[in-house]
Amino acid sequence: MTPALVFKEGPLSGRRIEVDAELVLGREDAGLTIEDEELSRRHAVVRPGDGGIEIEDLGSTNGTYVNGSRIEGPTRLAGGDSVKLGRSLIEVESARAAATVAAAVPSAPAPAPPAPAAAAAGARSAPAAAFGAYAVPVVKRRRGIASRQLGPQLLSFAIVAATAVALVLYFADH
Fold this sequence. Notes:
Blueprint: E1 4-9, E2 16-18, E3 23-26, E4 32-33, E5 44-49, E6 52-57, E7 64-66, E8 69-70, E9 75-77, E10 82-85, E11 88-93, H1 95-104, H2 117-120, E12 129-131, E13 134-136, H3 150-173
Parallel strand pairs: 3-4
Antiparallel strand pairs: 1-2, 1-11, 3-5, 5-6, 6-9, 7-8, 7-10, 10-11, 12-13
């Protein structure tokens, strides 16, 4: 079994993410996007290694805390450690503890989940994040300046067109 992060508090509360490769946590442009204004775009990175995982802060403004202490460099995590990122409180589940639990409680294979409505509708989504036996799609919202969004652009064009028509009518009468 691979080590995992279990979200106890925050926007992803209740989710379990297995860490089998390097995973960047952050608000935007991250492997795992967390909707939290207190996080930096690319806040921290979690890496597996030697049967466990380590976490490193990526120069975030609000910092990354392990067991209540702010970390300054790569920090090794053990099972039961708590990690605080913004509003999220994450508990580390070690590979050994997960293997022990799996051996003690046999489980039936989970049925395949139905296709999410967003995927069926053709919505763009990022790769799915592991959530137990299910894959939960992580939908990435497109963000950017207002000029790249259709609504504000059409509203601006309508205002300019209405002003031009009003000026033409005004000067046609005078």
